[in-house]
Automatic annotation (TrEMBL):
Organism: Cyanobium gracile UHCC 0139
Protein name (database record): DUF3120 domain-containing protein
Keywords: Membrane, Transmembrane, Transmembrane helix
Transmembrane regions listed in the UniProt entry: 34-53, 59-77, 89-109, 115-133, 140-162, 188-207, 219-241
Keyword Protein biosynthesis applies: no
Length: 248
């Protein structure tokens, strides 16, 4: 994941020295200091796929209430952590917002795709306000994750796939994989495929630009870039093994 973000998304080798302010020392093996927070952001973007989705599906209230200890741990790290551990705490604050938005939507509004982005964006004013102070890493991560979500939903809507969303989720378990696979096959048609390629290209350009700005914007670049990778993984799973998809 670390090499993918640098070589394929950001266009720079993973050993390139950061041009922004150097991070404090964090003795975490061979991970370069400047890559700690972007790598952490990339890993956090994958959490909803492998942990949150199945948890919300089986116990939405428990997954939602988990936001409380998650936020408490993040604030504890931010207040009492040293060096990069404190910055990781700030990053977790932003992740807590994304986690809560995801739980609310997938737990109670999953059959209404038009509600997806508004619910996920509930903390948008706080994230924008946080960019100017001590919470800028949290704001950058939240905004990067939200941009990835908005891009995915926008492409689905433009490609005419949004109507299939509630049909797949509302279908019996025996039929849902076939419906999901059919939706994935529609993506391979010329117009949706061209639209996806254009959107992915624009997001890659944006990732490079954000990375060049340094500081918290590298966290946003990692979040957007990892969202692209996760979307590609999801499309591949929908085509080859739809029953393994976290959407069903």
């Amino acid at each position: 994941m670390h090499n993918f973000l640098h070589n394929q998304v950001l266009g720079v080798p993973p050993t390139l020295s950061a041009r922004s302010e150097a991070l404090p020392d964090l003795r975490l093996g061979a991970v370069p200091h400047a890559a700690v927070l972007p790598l952490a952001a990339a890993l956090l973007v994958t959490v909803p796929v492998f942990l949150q989705a199945p948890w919300v599906r089986s116990a939405p209230m428990a997954a939602t209430l988990f936001t409380v200890p998650l936020m408490a741990f993040a604030l504890l790290l931010e207040r009492h952590g040293q060096g990069p551990w404190r910055q990781l705490g700030v990053l977790l604050v932003g992740f807590s917002g994304s986690w809560l938005g995801g739980c609310l939507f997938w737990g109670w509004f999953r059959l209404h795709p038009v509600m997806h982005l508004p619910i996920e964006a509930f903390a948008l004013p706080l994230a924008v306000a946080g960019l100017g102070g001590r919470w800028r890493l949290a704001g950058a991560f939240y905004l990067g994750s939200l941009l990835g979500t908005a891009s995915t939903d926008g492409v689905m809507a433009a490609a005419g796939l949004m109507d299939l969303w509630p049909r797949v989720l509302n279908a019996p378990l025996t039929q849902a994989p076939l419906l999901l696979q059919g939706a994935a096959l529609q993506v391979l048609q010329p117009w949706p495929l061209a639209l996806i390629a254009l959107a992915a290209g624009l997001l890659l350009v944006l990732c490079r630009r954000l990375w060049s700005l340094g500081g918290p914007w590298r966290v946003a670049a990692a979040a957007v870039g990892t969202t692209l990778a996760v979307d590609g993984l999801f499309l591949g799973a929908a085509l080859l093994a739809p029953h393994l998809s976290g959407l069903i």
